[in-house]
Amino acid sequence: MSNQVTKDLEILFEEYVEGFDASCVLSNAVKHYRASDLKMQRANDVYYRPQDYQMATQSGLDISGGTPTDVIQRMVPCSFRSPENVRFDLDAEEMRDPEHMKESGRAAGLSLAAKIDSDMYSTIALRASNVVTTTSAFSWDLGASAEALMMAKGMKLGSKRSLVLNAFDYKDVAKDLGNRAYMGNVNQDAYERSKVPDIAGFMTHRSDNLYNLAAIGTVTSTTVNANTSHTVSAMTGDLPTDNRIGTLVVAGANIANIKNGDVFTIGSGATAVNSVHHITKDDTGQLQTFRVISGAGTANLVISPAIIITGPYQNCTQQAAAGAAIAFKNTATKPVNPFWVHGAVELGVGKLAFPSDMGPKVMTANSKNGVPLIMSYDFNHLTGKASCRFTSLYATTVLEPELCGIILANQT
């Protein structure tokens, strides 16, 4: 019986791996990083990843009197989440049915895969700093607006980029295409099968994930409390500086209602904080959108991106001026559609050290998207039950908030 149980549970593990491979839309589309297990243990499961470098230009033949660009290594902290697990028991009667065991393994794989994709989806939804909104339904043109915004900021022309649509907005863009009379078979596919082609250079995916960004609520007459900008640095004390974020002190009667994840712009006219092209530093003419990362409900908000107004990492035209009005953009609770340039978002994967010689049997494998998978099981002959555990360890990180964004349709 023991050999048969082992064989049957190995089949269950194979189904687990296949089930995991079957549902990985976002985790397949983002960049992967395999962290060192030894270093993770010694660093309390936090590792640092570099951001892109940028340099300032100088004019003239003789630049000996000029000031060299400070070379600042910007690092981003990435933290492993608590391990995600699926656990269930199978008794000796249930294990007589091979199909029952196979489906249990497949369901375990699908559940963990869905959890990873959901966590990646929500990480981008809350940390992406480019936000495109419209008061109407999602249309083809909205994806093109997202690409134009990224191009104006200096996104590389040949860069790989992805757009993931939730099911409801995907339906609307398919309807938009189906109603057009000049796109041939594209219209027919959109009309008959809700199939849409890539949008505006984005590799377009449909996801069953659904993350709703909540409306701002009652927040009126919010202003900047003091002149604010951020100075890029390599270190803060003994740790690398997280230059993705900065602090903004605000004032207003309803600041207690500000939530993490809220989207806003700063100023208008002479106080407008616009985005700039990240290489040429030219004004894009577009208000920079900011996200509330933490500090919700207080006057001291941690925001992304940080407001940088000088040097090679300049991203805004000017500082946030005291008294400048803050305008919130997430005016209706709606699902997000994330987009990003390849490399801006990363799935970090790790592996726990489950010993194979201390009682329970342990099997390991890698999914097709590089996630280490562990199955451990133990059979108790007195109870006639096998206890099964499936485990994965990972981190979801937005390395470059200004190279990814979200689209919000149907805002009021």
Q: What is the 3D shape?
A: globular
Number of strands: 25
Largest sheet: 6 strands, mixed
Radius of gyration: 25 Å
Mean pLDDT: 90
Secondary structure: helix percent: 10-25%
Global structural class:
alpha+beta
The N- to C-terminal Cα distance equals: 64 Å
- In what range is the share of β-strand residues? 25-35%
Count, helices: 7
Which spans of ≥5 residues are poorly predicted at pLDDT below 50? 186-194
Structure description:
Strand 10 and strand 11 (239-240) form a beta hairpin. The strands form seven sheets. Strands 1, 4, 21, 22, 23 and 24 form a six-stranded mixed beta sheet that branches. A six-stranded antiparallel beta sheet has the order 9-12-17-16-13-18, with no helix packed on it. The protein is 23% helix and 30% strand. The radius of gyration is 25 Å and the shape is globular. The protein has 412 residues and is α+β, with helices and mostly antiparallel strands.
Question: Which terms summarize this structure?
Answer:
6-stranded antiparallel sheet, globular, 23% helix, 7 helices, 6-stranded mixed sheet
Layout of secondary structure:
Layout: H1 2-21, H2 25-29, E1 31-34, H3 37-42, E2 46-50, E3 75-79, E4 84-91, H4 98-127, E5 130-133, H5 140-152, E6 161-166, H6 167-178, H7 185-193, E7 203-207, E8 212-213, E9 223-224, E10 235-236, E11 239-240, E12 246-251, E13 263-266, E14 274-276, E15 283-287, E16 290-294, E17 300-304, E18 326-328, E19 334-335, E20 337-341, E21 345-350, E22 361-366, E23 372-380, E24 385-398, E25 404-408
Parallel strand pairs: 1-21, 5-25, 6-7
Antiparallel strand pairs: 2-3, 4-24, 6-20, 8-19, 9-12, 10-11, 12-17, 13-16, 13-18, 14-15, 16-17, 20-25, 21-24, 22-23, 23-24
